[in-house]
Design brief:
alpha+beta; 305 residues; globular; five-stranded antiparallel β-sheet; six-stranded mixed β-sheet
Length: 305
């Protein structure tokens, strides 16, 4: 099991542990319900450094990714980003990711469970393109602040107000002489940002984040709260609601698809679903009576159906 760069900080906060994609990550810090409530009422700070981060560089980087990913990579200017997927030739999901245009390269952000398989998939399609793929996960600390008081938290931390950025777009801010990439993004249904900080600044930056958040009611949150918040917000995750048996339209992630960008893997099926037909399954949320949740995979019936 791989430990996070901020492992000692989490242990000092009495974190309870679980695993994600071969990493040991905080499950909660003693009270997962309070962590969940903090994100709904104020804000929470999560360490997402187990996520994979790959750098794609080289003169053909945009053309290469344009032919593999479902979204329009070539339309992105530096500081912009998008959500995208990798499909097979039948249009089924193989991976999902977040992509950020960073000057002379793209950063690809993967769920911990997908990092190895998705990178192998991308390498398979390099062929004649002049591109270079580098795993830069160890170079960054990846944090997330989510909640209605995210803006106040950032203002206390940086002394700046976050501009009204679209999702997946970013700005680079200075923190004590270190460049921090601030990305507008949240999986909780609340306002939120992801923060990429150089690994060398990680522990100090984590401490500064916690200190800045306390006056607005912020607190650290673990994977258990992040999962319950994500599910409430209807945000699917690969390995849970998303897998290789799904079409993007079934999973409700059409925002990962550009229908005007030109050819990519699985595009024929995706376009046929959009223009000529519909899907037989659709990801939805259900409100259930009673205190107990059904087991994963259980059949749910309403009026015998």
């Amino acid at each position: 099991m791989v430990r996070l760069p901020l492992d000692a900080r989490h242990r000092a906060l009495q974190a309870q542990w679980t695993q994600a994609g071969g990493w040991e990550v905080p499950l909660h810090y003693g009270d997962p319900l309070a962590e969940h409530a903090a994100v709904r009422e104020s804000a929470g700070l999560a360490d997402l450094s187990a996520r994979g981060l790959w750098r794609v560089s080289g003169p053909d980087r945009a053309k290469y990714l344009q032919g593999i990913l479902t979204n329009d990579v070539q339309a992105l200017a530096p500081g912009q980003g998008c959500y995208a997927a990798v499909l097979d030739v039948t249009g089924h999901l193989q991976a999902d990711l977040r992509l950020y245009a960073a000057g002379d390269a793209f950063l690809l952000d993967f769920d911990p469970a997908l990092t190895t398989s998705a990178a192998a998939l991308l390498k398979r399609y390099i062929v004649v393109y002049k591109v270079k793929l580098d795993d830069v996960s160890a170079e960054w600390i990846h944090l997330a602040i989510s909640g209605p008081k995210t803006g106040e938290w950032l203002a206390a931390l940086f002394g700046l107000d976050l501009p009204p950025l679209p999702d997946y777009h970013s700005v680079a801010w200075d923190w004590r002489g270190r460049p921090i990439i601030v990305i507008r993004l949240s999986e909780t249904g609340e306002d939120g940002v992801h923060l990429l900080a150089p690994n060398g600044a990680g522990a100090d930056f984590w401490d500064a984040c916690l200190a800045a958040g306390r006056p607005v009611g912020g607190r650290p949150i673990g994977l258990q709260a992040m999962e319950s918040l994500r599910i409430e917000a209807g945000v699917p995750r690969f390995g849970a609601e998303l897998d290789a048996s799904r079409f993007p339209a079934e999973a409700g992630i059409e925002h990962a698809i550009s229908y005007t960008k030109g050819c990519d893997l699985g595009q024929e099926t995706t376009m046929r679903i959009k223009t000529q037909g519909s899907v037989n399954r659709k990801l939805v949320g259900l409100r259930l009576d009673g205190p107990a949740l059904p087991e994963p995979g259980a059949r749910l019936l309403a009026d015998g159906q």
